[in-house]
Amino acid sequence: MRPEERLDRGGPLVELLRPAAWLYGAVTRLRNAAYDRGLFASHRVNAPVVCVGNLSTGGTGKTPCVEWVVRALTARGRRPGVLSRGYRASAAERSGDGPAGDEARMLARALPEVPLVQDPDRVRGARELVRRGCDSIVLDDGFQHRRLARDVDLVLIDATRPFGLSWEGGEQPPWTLPRGLLRESPHGLARASACVFTRCDQVAPERLDTLGERVRAYAPGLALVRTVHRPRALVDGRGERFGLERLRGAAVDLVSGIGNADAFEATVAGLGARVSEHRRFGDHHAFGPRDLVGLGASGRFVVTTAKDAVKLPSDHPTLFALEIGFEVLDGAAVLDALLDGLGPSRAQRERANLHEGLHG
Predict the structure, then answer these.
(1) Do residues 223 and 248 make contact, with C-beta atoms less than 8 angstroms apart?
(2) Is the pLDDT of residue 40 over 60?
(3) HSE of 163 in the Cβ direction (CA atoms, 13 Å)?
(4) Which helix (H) or strand (E) segment is 13 a member of?
(5) Quick check: 171 and 217 in contact, CB under 8 A?
(6) 135: buried, middle or exposed (CB in 10 Å: 19+, 13-18, 0-12)?
(7) Region label for 342, one of left (φ > 0), alpha (ψ between -120 and 50) or beta (otherwise)
(8) What percentage of the chain exceeds 70 in pLDDT?
(9) Which strand (E) or helix (H) includes residue 211?
(10) Which of 125, 130, 153, 216 has the greatest CB tally within 10 Å of its CB?
């Protein structure tokens, strides 16, 4: 049973985690208060920073949103770079030639021309991107990393599991770790520039309305954006893309190691596939040779996520990754205004001064 399933189910042993959650919540509140009052310093770099983060651990769909923000900045004539911690990557891997970690490899595949830096010290990593000529920085999963100052904070909330735990059986209290999956109290939404609801197509409209009311109870006046993760294609190990019609009526096996496996299965089923087996592993699972044994029998397709595909063998004959795109349903004007309002970086000012000098 995955951790979120145990927490969803509850029970005497799970409820023993409540005191630890209260302590964790108190520590995060004290830390945030220290930053709010200037006791802890936030450091600015010579480029505007857009953070894509969340309140809960994993599963909100950050990576497609990061890709969307990078492309939106590029369309505005900027030179963005992506900054991440390099989750579960060793120092040697982070300092190597290629990206380390599943999300970083996924982004590198989708955005091959965009500089990507992984560094647990996000201030140092941001300065490295500036040194490489980036005039804007997209901070991946950094909402709680307040040491690096940012200009825009986009906080993602998965509409199918709004505060980490399932909606099934009624709304659950917003428990922090370890009783729940929140990294901090939802009151932290008051720091956000906008709240982005993801996977809005997988819940009823009235639930979205309820979620909006609940979010604004924590952060009155906060701008809300509704989005979906739209399937685009199936991609094999060689990078060849195929139409989604291949899934219609087909029996498939699924394999995933992500934060919200239910949402992935719902997406595949929504494309008309019949799911025979879904082999679920924990988020950021390090796949081994035995993890695919038995999948794809009788000629069934084996479908995985783009995030997991970078860790699975590329020569598997029936393995396909489901390519997902980030699409804004409602609130695009909010995101446009936030990105359009970013100030110039030092590199942009220098280029403008040079251009003025050449034509002056």
Answers:
(1) no
(2) yes
(3) 21
(4) helix 12-15
(5) no
(6) buried
(7) beta
(8) 91
(9) helix 205-218
(10) 125
Place of tokens 């025979």: 276
Tokens of 283: 């988020």
Q: 118 Cβ partners below 8 Å, 6+ apart?
A: 83, 84, 85, 86, 89, 94, 99, 100, 101, 104, 125
266-315 per-position pLDDT tens digit? 999 999 999 999 999 988 899 998 999 999 988 899 999 999 999 998 88
| HSE value, Cβ hemisphere, 13 Å, CA-based, for 179 | 22
**Residue 255 phi/psi, 5° resolution?**
-140, 130
Cα–Cα–Cα angle for 240, 324, 206, nearest 5°?
Answer: 155
Q: Which residues, 6+ apart, have CB-to-CB distance to 8 below 8 Å? A: 165, 166, 168, 172
pLDDT at 91 over 60: no
Residue 305 backbone class (left: φ over 0; alpha: ψ -120 to 50; beta: rest): beta
The tokens 């394999």 sit on which residue?
Answer: 255
Predicted confidence (pLDDT) per residue in 126-176, tens digit:
999 999 999 999 999 999 999 999 999 999 999 999 998 887 656 678 999
Rounded Cα distance between 195 and 180, Å, is 20
**Sign of the torsion angle spanned by Cα atoms 58, 180, 263, 158:** negative
- Stated as kind and residue range, the H or E segment containing 70 is helix 62-75
Residue appearing with tokens 């109870």: 217
Closest CA to 67 of 102, 108, 100: 108
